[in-house]
Amino acid sequence: MRMDLDFSGRHVMVFGGTTGINLGIADCFAQRRGRVAVVSRKQENVDAAVAQLSRHGGEVLGLVADVRDPQAVQAAIEASVARFGAIDVLVSGAAGNFLADAKDLSPNGFGVVVDIDLKGTFHVMRMAWPHLAKPGASVINITAPQGQRPVRRQVHACAAKAGVDQLTRVLAQEWGAEGIRVNAISPGPIGDTEGVRRLVANSPESKKRAEARIPLGRFGELDDIGNLAMFLASPFAGYLSGAIIPCDGGGTIEADRYRPE
Length: 261
Ligand code: NAP
Ligand code: COA
Prior knowledge:
Elements lengths: L10 E5 L4 H12 L3 E6 L2 H12 L5 E5 L5 H15 L4 E4 L14 H22 L9 E5 L12 H21 L5 E7 L6 H7 L3 H9 L9 H12 L10 E4 L14
Parallel strand pairs: 1-2, 1-4, 2-3, 4-5, 5-6, 6-7
Helix pairs in contact: 1-2, 1-8, 3-4, 4-5
The structure holds NADP nicotinamide-adenine-dinucleotide phosphate (NAP) and coenzyme A.
């Protein structure tokens, strides 16, 4: 079920928008008549995403760039702006993660996740700055509960997403005067996504156990995140900035993993 909003003519740019949660976000905006650009590393993912998004009949652009490369990010932004004009909605969601004990993690393994999630998000925001609609742009970073809660075997992602949370808050402070709102969505486990497969549940049994720890008793759906992104991009969220918003069925307040049966 999707919110009934209209993004006709609005330029929506989604970094990491070719699979999973971020593609779900892009799809929501494409269905609501936004002019949507999606960016990621792999041409095959870009092509598949463009094919999916184009089915809604609107204008779609797919671009290849690695968020670790500021020049590539800048080139993608300039190409999208040349086609669709100033950016109204900027989503930064490219990320990498895997399970590894810190004692076994190589410096490069730690660094690669920080480079993609944290430095990549800075590159996206920094390079987009000259092209954001002023006033009115909505910047949405995709963070994770690991940004605020420690999670074993994910020291790399915990550190990186904590940084994303602070980027969100500081740039909300700095960019508010230009009428730009900056927020982050912190999803819980969402459907059949790469993040869930790698980190949370890779069998029906482990999924059942994980769902039992969520107050609403289920994993989220792509549209749960897409609806929140559309709300954040809409005038209804006009006084919302600097917020890290959990969308997780209450999962992050459920610290009581050892509650009585
Ligand atoms: P996913 O399907 O693996 O999506 C990651 C996206 O980022 C892909 O489009 C990938 O495409 C792109 N990407 C990866 N590295 C990149 C790079 N260096 N430069 C540019 N693009 C890059 O993952 P997901 O599970 O949907 O997660 C999406 C976001 O939600 C992430 O920020 C994640 O931390 C967050 N999140 C997910 C969950 C969950 O339940 N899945 C929960 C909490 C938070 P290419 O491979 O083509 O580059
Ligand atoms: N456990 C421990 N270390 C790992 C690892 C794992 N599962 N996967 C990768 N690494 C380490 C590598 O060993 C390497 O370090 P080294 O040079 O010291 O050996 C370092 O991470 C970089 O790996 P590489 O495969 O070269 O990185 P990449 O740039 O090709 O890919 C990743 C980046 C590793 C994050 C990859 O998993 C990826 O592309 N992920 C995107 C999708 C994703 O993670 N989605 C879920 C989002 S929540």
